[in-house]
Specification:
Number of strands: 14
Helix content: 25-40%
Largest sheet: 6 strands, mixed
Number of domains: 1
Strand content: 25-35%
Structural class: alpha/beta
CATH class: Alpha Beta
Oligomer: single chain
CATH superfamily: Carbon-nitrogen hydrolase
Radius of gyration: 17 Å
CATH topology: Nitrilase/N-carbamoyl-D-aminoacid amidohydrolase
Distance between the termini: 33 Å
Order of helices and strands: EHEHHEEEHEEHEHEEEEEEHH
Shape: globular
CATH architecture: 4-Layer Sandwich
Length: about 260
Amino acid sequence: MKIAAIQLDSVWEDPSANFAKVEHLLASTPPSPGSLIVLPEMFATGFSFDLSKTMHGASRETESFLRSLAVRHRSIVTGGVINPGANGLGRNESVTFAADGTLMARYVKQQPFGAAESAVHEAGSETVVFGLGEFTMAPLVCYDLRFPELFRAAAREGADLFVVIAAWPAIRIDHWRTLLRARAIENMAFVIGVNRTGREPSGECGGCSMIIDPRGEIIAEAGRDETILTAEIFHASVAAWRAEFPALRDARWESR
């Protein structure tokens, strides 16, 4: 499967401008049909807590944009959106659309970032896994990366490809790089981490999007520039490693 990870420098609270930036990047680096295209957490607005600027209305314009990308590029598209939740809160979601525009999965971030995000975004409570060709994919969002139990729950349900979309800050970018590799190693799975880059009012996002194999080796890594990170991954690699090395077979699942 070919991967096109879009590391975006989002224009603050301006979906139209960010849609145009994504279109420009894809025009300059067109993905092959059947690719997995991934956009970061809250790519359309930046990591804003102003729900009047970030949360979808009835038209769900950001989802409509992602769906249109999938259809036009004949590819699978994953990206971050904010949808209405309960009690006036939003829901920080990762959504995935198939090449025909069908919604494949909707995942709600289970770990909002501390009290500030919890005040505006409700926490999800469900692990999501779904078939993606030969792979079984689990989507996660940013701060979820610090909670290995979320990844292990998905691995227990068969996940062998984790896609983490993020707005991870530059000041903690070493943690991002280390934790992505750790989640790949301990779950013997491919991990795709797609981060935003550039400045916003609360600070700077760190970029360094990565594609990591099940042994923890970095297949591809971006720097701090806005770019599309590309690579190709093969399910045979994860199947062979899991057959060779017994860590998942030795895991005492029932003790949890």
